[in-house]
Amino acid sequence: MIYSPNSPILCRLPRVTIVGAGRVGSTLAQRIAEKNLADVVLLDIVAGMPQGLALDLLEARGIELHNRQIVGTNNYADTSGSQIVVITAGLPRKPGMSRDDLLKTNAKIVVEAAKQAIAYSPNAIFIVVTNPLDVMTYLAWQATGLPRDRVMGMAGVLDSARFETFIALELGVLPADVKAMVLGSHGDLMVPLSRYATVNGVPITELLDTATIDRLVERTRNGGAEIVELMQTGGAFFAPASATSVMVESILLNQSRLLPVATYLQGEYGLDDIVIGVPCRLGCGGIEEVLELHLTDGEREALQTSAQSVRNNIDRAQEILNGG
Ligand code: TXD
């Protein structure tokens, strides 16, 4: 049977809606389909574009050996009954533009997308990707009215992957053998936890001197900007799509992976009423646990500074949305 967005619920396989069929959104659709995780609905405001991308992806199915359905649409009604909604809609950063410059435009886009999507998929788990990430996740959480375990942001998995990449390049080891955790806001104030980074369990502090680790941390902090400067036309999308697909996978397959996720905090780490990246366990219910690590004074201070900057931007976003 040919699947259509209007298929009866019983015929449906897990469905993931991606709002924003740009570079991150379309690459994520490809990853999800080719990993055989779920059927995908790609939604964008640009007429014809998501439909064209969906058709292109469908035409690759025979070659890539999967049978996932991919639907492109401009209509939220076609997203109904999604298990997961990923929001990537918005403007990407341009050279020299900070993530926070994006605040104004993207706040309106994300709030609208979250409200429309929840109306058709009341049971969905939301993953926000749009920048500035922590603020947009907060706004989506507010707009959907969902409990905190069902609205989260993707940044830490990407930032950690970047840190791991730079460590692997420096040491000449297999990237998959490097494990690292980056907390805090997605931006210049992110908090890479060097003392938790290992190569197959060996702390990098045993393998690299402090100056080298500091250089890799700095490169991680500027990871997004480095790519924007090189490309000049938009930002990273391959690794962001991979990072998001890992979160989608952990939820759909109930893997309970412990990943750095932007989540709404209620007192953890001494922070309240704010979204910021911390280690969370991700399973079929969304965020199953927020893990509170013991941080050094320096790490805790860095997290506080990071949180303060998110707080300022949340306040600014609220003003903008209230017509200020
Ligand atoms: O780590 C992270 N969280 C990030 C975040 C990593 C990479 C990219 N990050 C951010 O994701 C980036 O700063 C942007 O805010 C988003 C999307 O980045 P992308 O590179 O995919 O941008 P594109 O290619 O411009 O795609 C955005 C799409 C584009 O097709 C628009 O037409 C669409 O969003 N768009 C909309 N879709 C639906 N509804 C509305 N209102 C809308 N407005 C724009």
Question: Descriptors for this entry?
Answer:
324 residues, alpha/beta, Rossmann fold, 2 domains, six-stranded parallel β-sheet, three-stranded antiparallel β-sheet, 14 strands, binds 1,4,5,6-tetrahydronicotinamide adenine dinucleotide
Overview of this structure, please?
The structure is a single chain. Helix content is 41%, strand content 19%. 49% of the residues are buried. β4 (84-87), α4 (103-120) and β5 (125-128) form a beta-alpha-beta unit. The longest helix has 25 residues, at 297-321. It has helices at 23-34, 49-59, 61-64, 103-120, 133-144, 156-171, 210-221, 223-231, 238-252, 297-321, and strands spanning 15-19, 39-43, 70-73, 84-87, 125-128, 151-153, 178-179, 182-183, 191-192, 198-199, 202-203, 257-266, 272-283, 286-290. The protein contains ten helices and 14 strands. By secondary structure, the chain is an alpha/beta fold. The protein folds into two domains: 2-153, Rossmann fold, CATH 3.40.50; 156-321, Lactate dehydrogenase/glycoside hydrolase, family 4, C-terminal (L-2-Hydroxyisocaproate Dehydrogenase, Chain A, domain 2, Alpha-Beta Complex). A six-stranded parallel beta sheet has the order 3-2-1-4-5-6, with helices on both faces. Strands 7-10-11 form a three-stranded antiparallel beta sheet, covered by helices on one side. Strands 12-13-14 form a three-stranded antiparallel beta sheet. It binds 1,4,5,6-tetrahydronicotinamide adenine dinucleotide. 1,4,5,6-tetrahydronicotinamide adenine dinucleotide binds next to α1 and α4.
